[in-house]
Amino acid sequence: MKKLINNPTKVVEEMIEGYVKAYPNHVRQLTENERALVTAKETREGKVGVLIGGGSGHEPAFIGYVGDGMADGVAVGNIFASPPPDPILEATKVIDKGEGVIYVYGNYAGDVMNFGMAAELADLESGIRVGSVLVTDDVASAPKEEKEKRRGIAGEFFVTKAAGAAADKGYNLDDVVRVAQKANDYTRTMGVGLTPCSLPQTGKPSFVLAENEMEIGLGHHGEPGIEKGDLQPADQVVDRLVHDILTDMPIDSGEKVAVLVNGLGSTTNMELYIMFRRVEQILSEKGIEIHRSYVGSYSTSLEMGGASVTITKLDEELAAFIDHPADCPMYVQK
Amino acid sequence: MKITAEEIKVFLKNVVTMIEAEKDYLCELDRKLGDGDHGVTMSIGWQAVNEKLEGDLKEEQDCGKISIVTGRTFLSAVGSSVGPLYATGFMRGAKAFQGKSELSGEDLKDFWIAFIEGIKERGKAEVGDKTMIDTLQPALESLQSNFGKSNDFLSAFESVVQAAEKGMESTKDILSKRGRSSRLGERSLGTIDPGAASSFMILKTFLTTIKSAQVA
């Protein structure tokens, strides 16, 4: 796979360097740990800090979501690998303004251990209260009875959004955690993979799909999905994805939702709009109101081909948080 | 038997060399089960340890400190899931080495028991989950029973490595239950778990190191 890079072992460092230089008004790199970035504007006194993070290769997630109304800090891991506790801990110390910090991250074994260790250290070393919400929106990654085992994928955007808005509105840590947990409980994602990605260090594709094959439920790091088959037209694929979401989380006519159609890296916006068109048709047929929609590459897997549909059910509280303004390098909402 | 701080550092150096040699093989195993980066991750971590061995640890004689720095350095360099697992192993094991520049068979036994217990506690995996625990649990049991019988660490550790190898091989025949590969189902059959492989390789490297230290 062709890539415009210099040194495969330096991609994360060089990416961060470029990113920080590109958006100096939004983010700054901590001198204590170069894998920790925080908001350039300084977290407000008395506000709960919001910390996100995970492996690299998902850009604009997670670094792109540091800014007003979203996260105050981000810990950056190696490609597709959880960051170690150090950058998490250092960012935590900087963004804690006496009200504690919430960690929002995807439910992966590595992230659970590293963020868990960082939370323990924050409490032991600095007496900082940390609350954690693990994102588990990927319907295909485990059956409904084992929802707590599900992985986090594109739906993390909505959980971060809810946590960021609640913190911005001055909620205390317990309430920010409650809101983020509710956003996660109300969020479901189903994805489809078309082409693999390759890690810069190995250069080899992380999984194999035949030319005319697609895989429903493929994970964000190439984890196998639930069904491989011939590539179908966009409408049929979307029908399947939305069907699985609504079977897992029934939504009544008249209810409000937020929708995200997310590209995995090399899938074009054109394809994503074609997919969104079908999502809208299905939902409006069912009388489900799309309160706000997002279409684009919000969380990618290097150059993987494919897309996902995320639906978040909104009550009054969550709807207000989804509408809350945000100003991040990779996402602005007025 | 006596093992010096220098010999512990030789062991760690040998792991560095071994991981570089096995990097592609470990990635290949992981490509079948996960995202294909286990060899790369291990290499990043052990190269960072190597820098410490050639820098801060060059003159260090406290085996406990050597082990703590190894764990912390590995963790900071890799994160991931192997970071906390191996780091917890080295940091827990360090207690058995604390303040010592020369280690007895008893110390080495205590180190590896704490090492494995630490990983078990951190990862919460069990035998049969197709993880490094399938290598480490039989190793732990073998160490406890064989060292108890003979009090001869070297011969006990020979059995440990044999038990670990058997455990590693057993992961071929089990379905993935934990980590990212847990959704593979039947597709995970036939492949050794990369973590089970790398943990076996580390134990084996320890055996070869203390054997040659013994001869010398």
Automatic annotation (TrEMBL), chain A:
One of its GO terms (cellular component) is cytosol. InterPro entries: DhaK_dom, Dihydroxyacetone_Kinase. One of its GO terms (molecular function) is glycerone kinase activity. It comes from Peribacillus loiseleuriae. Pfam families: Dak1. The keyword Transcription does not apply. Residues 7-331 form the DhaK domain. The keyword Ribonucleoprotein does not apply. It comes from the Bacteria. GO terms for biological process: glycerol catabolic process. This is Dihydroxyacetone kinase. The lineage of its organism: Bacteria, Bacillati, Bacillota, Bacilli, Bacillales. Keywords: ATP-binding, Kinase, Nucleotide-binding, Transferase. Gene3D superfamilies: Dihydroxyacetone kinase, domain 1, Dihydroxyacetone kinase, domain 2.
TrEMBL record, chain B:
It is an enzyme of class 2 (transferase). Residues 6-208 form the DhaL domain. It comes from the Bacteria. Gene3D superfamilies: 1.25.40.340. GO terms for biological process: glycerol catabolic process. The keyword Transferase applies. GO terms for molecular function: glycerone kinase activity; phosphoenolpyruvate-glycerone phosphotransferase activity. Keywords: Glycerol metabolism, Kinase, Transferase. One of its GO terms (cellular component) is cytosol. ADP-binding subunit of the dihydroxyacetone kinase, which is responsible for the phosphoenolpyruvate (PEP)-dependent phosphorylation of dihydroxyacetone. DhaL-ADP is converted to DhaL-ATP via a phosphoryl group transfer from DhaM and transmits it to dihydroxyacetone binds to DhaK. Homodimer. The dihydroxyacetone kinase complex is composed of a homodimer of DhaM, a homodimer of DhaK and the subunit DhaL. NCBIfam families: dha_L_ycgS. This is phosphoenolpyruvate--glycerone phosphotransferase. It comes from Peribacillus loiseleuriae.
